[in-house]
Amino acid sequence: MQEQREVGFLELLRVNPVYRRFWVGLSISMLGEWFNTVALFVLIYNLTGSQLGIGLLFVLRMFSLALPQVFTGMLADRFSRKWLMIWANVLSAFTVLTLLWVDEASEVWMVYAVSSILMMLHAVFIPAENATIPNITTDNELLTANAMNSGTWSAALVLGASIGGFVVSLYGVEVAFIVNAVTFLFAALMYSTMTIPQDPYIPREGGIWANTVGTIIDGFRIILRTPPVRRIISAKALWSLFGGGLVYMLVLVGEDVGVGDFAAGIGLLFAARGLGTGLGPILARYAFTDRSRWPFMLGWLVSVCGLGYAVIGWMHWSILIAVFITFAHAASGANWVISTVLLQERSEDAWRGRMFSTDFLLMTAVNGFSTLAASLMLEFTDITLREGIQLFAILQILSGLVWVAFVLPGEREFARTTSS
Fold first, then answer.
1. Phi/psi at 137 (5° precision)
2. Are 18 and 195 in contact (CB under 8 A)?
3. Beta carbons of 259 and 268 less than 8 angstroms apart
4. Which residue, 235, 280, 307, 403, is the most exposed by fewest CB within 10 angstroms?
């Protein structure tokens, strides 16, 4: 049978109205989230004046996103993914507005608490979102849809971080929180207009325990017993192993690039990061046409990202580092979309939500530990910010090479069995 042509980006939006509404809602809410993220960094720094305070925000956000993933994948397989996405956005809108009351250093705990709640709600949204995409796209739309989602996240990061940085600098953090709340509500409205196919959940014998904890354990068991999924599910965590610390240190570099105040510097560097993560999936779609090579590319792409940060670590810090940030995150963006498509293709709808929650559990937990290690290193050792970036970049290069060596035998065997 002849393989279907992969649809183009504009073609996908034109021929698939369900995905189009999904994408519009996702795009607007992502834009608001990056306004909010820059504002949180600035608010914490203004209230505490501490690099460690920003690091703790990173760590708390990552662990608040990671820990609920143990349960939220089960929710995405048992309940309506559409309504999980709607309620996650509605509750996020009202939660973010509580930040408008924070204006004193003694209230900094509220920033951490609200950030944690927002990440927990996002943890409900993510498995539902990723498990939904294969159900609203055809086989020849799946790669394009994932590349478009990743590119949209990146475009939102570029616009949200750059514009948000300057808006926060001029008008304060309150504007960013209001914009974020409005975008959450708009996204919920868009999702409410969609019909999302989903395999019905078949209750298991044994009551509530079997249908909650039992379902969660069963999801882990399926992943462990499915080597093609088990290998790829570590790809995002591989990047996070040192990428989490590198992105945290990137925020601190914002003071030194000479484009204005701290908020403007963060906005510029995160915009470069967003540009890279947007270009990476698009380039991967056209450049990496041999899908049999995809699993091996994942480790190499992590090493390429480390190479970009290694250059940053040894060069003079100015606006020019944005070029190498873009290069580094183009590789990480390609890693993200390729691993996501492989997981979607190698899984079944009945357990896809639990698989993606495990994927994000690994990625966010590792990211949190990486950020914690970097922030403690800078706070309590004599290692400078520049030396920290150099160290983490070199280790990221090595980690990608080690991963390729470990997955190579299993993927070669999988390729032989599936092609025969």
1. -135, 160
2. yes
3. yes
4. 307
DSSP assignment letter at 258: S
412 CB-near residues (< 8 Å, 6+ apart) = none
Q: Does 3.40.50.2000 match the CATH number of domain 15-195+225-419?
A: no
Which residues, at least 6 apart from 344, have a Cβ–Cβ distance to it below 8 Å? 130, 133, 134, 142, 146, 352
CA neighbor of 18 nearest in space, from 129, 131, 133, 113: 133
Q: Which helix (H) or strand (E) holds 296?
A: helix 294-314
- Hey, what are 370's tokens? 């990486």
Q: Report the distance separating Cα 309 and Cα 253, nearest Å.
A: 12
pLDDT tens figures, 351-374: 888 888 889 889 888 988 998 899
The closest of 132, 120, 104 to 48, measured between CA atoms, is 104
Residues 60-110: tens digit of each pLDDT:
888 888 888 878 888 888 889 999 999 999 999 999 999 988 878 788 889
Contacts of 263 (CB under 8 A, 6+ apart): 38, 41, 42, 165, 166, 168, 169
Q: Which two tokens stand for residue 169?
A: 């600098």
Cα dihedral sign, 193-196-200-201: negative
